[in-house]
Amino acid sequence: MKLYVLDGGRIEILDWARFQPDAGPGVRRWISDSCYLIVHPRGTLMWDTGLPDRLAGVAEGHTIPGVAVFHVTEPLADRLTALGHPPHEIDFLALSHFHPDHVGNVELFRGATLLVQGDEYAAAFGASPGDHGFDPQTYAVLRERPVAPLHGDHDVFGDGTVVIKRLPGHTPGSQSLLVRLPDTGSVLVSGDLVHSMENWTRRVVPTFNSDPQETVRSLELADRVLAEENATLWVQHDLDQQSALRHGPAFYT
Ligand SMILES: [Zn+2]
After folding, report:
1. How far is the CA of 86 from the centre of ligand 1 (A)?
2. Domains in the chain with CATH codes
3. How far is CA 39 from CA 44, 64, 85, 89, 122, in A?
């Protein structure tokens, strides 16, 4: 089994207080937007898809007024193809949640079965997706794709090595990914359970969040998982931590 860390773009947050309420007004902060490819003997899994490839090379990026500026350097499709796993050949597409910075290239994975929590899918395609920060235009194609709605944790390949963990709160059906790597050890890939290592250490509940009480419970559950598994938390949006990881074509085993 191989775990590849991939750059899904970078984001300049224009008001960090949305994610860390005591940050003070108007604080800007750069965050990473990592996504991950797992190549397992029984299939391939993509975890999140970053920002849209069409932003690659757009110098000024894409601004969401008052919220963030999205930047992409290298198209995800190019990187995956260079690794020998072009997006249309990926077996499973698992999304931590449906926010725009995680669904940027979902249309490319046209042969993949979608692995998302049933309530997340229902919210994304329900009457008021905007209530959860979703933009239906960014993932409309998924309505036509095969989906395996999950209702809790899910052992993707049936051998315990890659397990989706239901950790709701940031959105109705947010999830994280536990990967039990024989050499590296276990890693819990955060999704947006937290948006920085500092927020994890302080157990911060973001303002931009669906259900604060659920988030508190999920933070406690994640803490127990990390202890039981002796796992490392990888925070997808923590620029310092993610920048220090090996990126594809290098990988973790
Ligand atoms: Zn995010």
Report:
1. 23
2. 2-244 (3.60.15.10)
3. 5, 34, 9, 12, 29
